[in-house]
Amino acid sequence: MSDGRAWEGNIKARLYERVRGRGYDSLTAFAEARPTASLLELADELGPDDIAAVQVFSGLVAEAERSRRITRLVRGQLVRELAEALPNGWPAVLDDANRLKVAVALAHWGAYTPETHEQRVDKVGDALLATPPPPGWLPLGPDDELLLTLLPDEEA
Asked: What are the pLDDT digits (tens) for 138-150?
């Protein structure tokens, strides 16, 4: 986890220098090669002492805006949150404990959602709770068939 040094110097230059040093031409390519890694895990891999998770996400949003792929980014972030909160996949029974795990994952997802997609994310969360996916479902990337059905691309 980053200490205060993450906010010193040229943050963007440091972030992209680390990404290129790992053989990727973009932060998106780096993150998509690790679709279930949390933002914190991505930040720690790039620089445990001087890269923060919020910096990684900010860079991902900027790239998604430039490439007009924000919906894909939003789906990808749900994958990350579900992998962290539900490592064994969607629970077979939504008892109180499992409902809490799902709610936490959805809340974290919502917190990392650009304003342009907040309403869509709320609807997807409601849909997942109203009609749960099959037990064990755990998307491995943003192109998961169910995710594409729930949150299709709208960018032109």
From this structure: 999 999 999 999 9
Torsions phi, psi for 133 (to 5 deg): -70, 170
Q: Look up residue 35 and give its DSSP letter.
A: T
**CA proximity to 78, closest of 29, 127, 43, 30:** 127
* Torsional class of 73: left (φ above 0), alpha (ψ -120 to 50), beta (otherwise): alpha
Query: What are the residue ranges spanned by the domains of the chain?
Result: 4-67, 70-150
The sign of the torsion formed by the CA atoms of 76, 115, 48, 18 equals: positive
Task: Give SS3 for 31.
Answer: helix
Entry pTM? 0.91
- Residues 131-138: contacts with CB within 8 Å, 24+ apart? 132/90, 132/94, 133/90, 134/90, 135/89, 135/90, 135/91, 135/92, 136/88, 136/89, 136/90, 136/92, 137/89, 137/90, 138/82, 138/83, 138/86, 138/87, 138/88, 138/89, 138/90
C-alpha 16: how far from chain center? 19
Strand runs labelled E in 24-149: none
Mapped onto helix, strand or coil, the DSSP state of residue 17 is helix
